[in-house]
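Working notes for the structural subgroup meeting. M.R. asked for a predicted model of this chain before we commit to crystallization trials. I am recording the input and output together here so anyone reviewing the notebook later can reproduce the run.

Input as submitted:
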Amino acid sequence: MQKRELAVTTCAGQISSCPPPWNSFVFRQTRKFRFAKGSIALYSILLVAGAPLVFFSSPARAQQTAPAAPVIVQPGAPGKPSKTLPPSTKASLPPLSQADVEFMQGMIMHHAQAVEMTALISSHTDNKDLHSLGARISRSQSDEINFMKRWLAVRGQPISMAMPGMPDMDRSGRPMALMPGMLSPEQMEALRKAKGSEFDHLFLTGMIQHHNGALTMVKDLFDTAGAGQDADIFNFATDADNTQRAEIRIMHTMLENKPSEEKR
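Returned structure, recorded in token form:
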């Protein structure tokens, strides 16, 4: 059988020397394609223009450059340009207000009594609505106590305003005063002795008193010059105010909805 020869030219791997157009075959070296019966012998590599190219390099060349240092920008006041700070700049806590510290210390003690009150519910009443409310108050105020303790610890402040070794005295040596709205020892004793509907009434009226005291503490904080400016305290105090106002409304409704025989 007569064999025909086709002469083709390739770039032989020298991509940079291949002239355009890239969408056509480019020929440089002559190779032969022999068409034999039942088979084709391929003796060259056809470089198709436009195909993706993959380059391999040694690990040394693949090393990435070090990331650039972060840019620290201090936003300017309204209408003023921002200012770029040096990379060595470190964040710092806002100025500490003594009123903020005393608010957190006092609110820890305040919340602790609320948690103590809710702990009596399971053994003193079968009121399901009160059980649900008590669990909600206990959970939220326990979480807030942990938050306030962390806030004080980060700033190197004592958790309690009581004098070490003398829990009934503050750090100035004066007798510790109850925070606004806190139940007196006599009220707490009456609550412990009550059962059933009597307990329900004492708990609801006592917790309304307690919550109103917390609202007073928040108001006093924001009425103090320079206090409540810390973002964490501002957010916490605002949230506590909103939450306890909502719970006061719930407790008033629960008191109003008591069966008629309990209202006598």
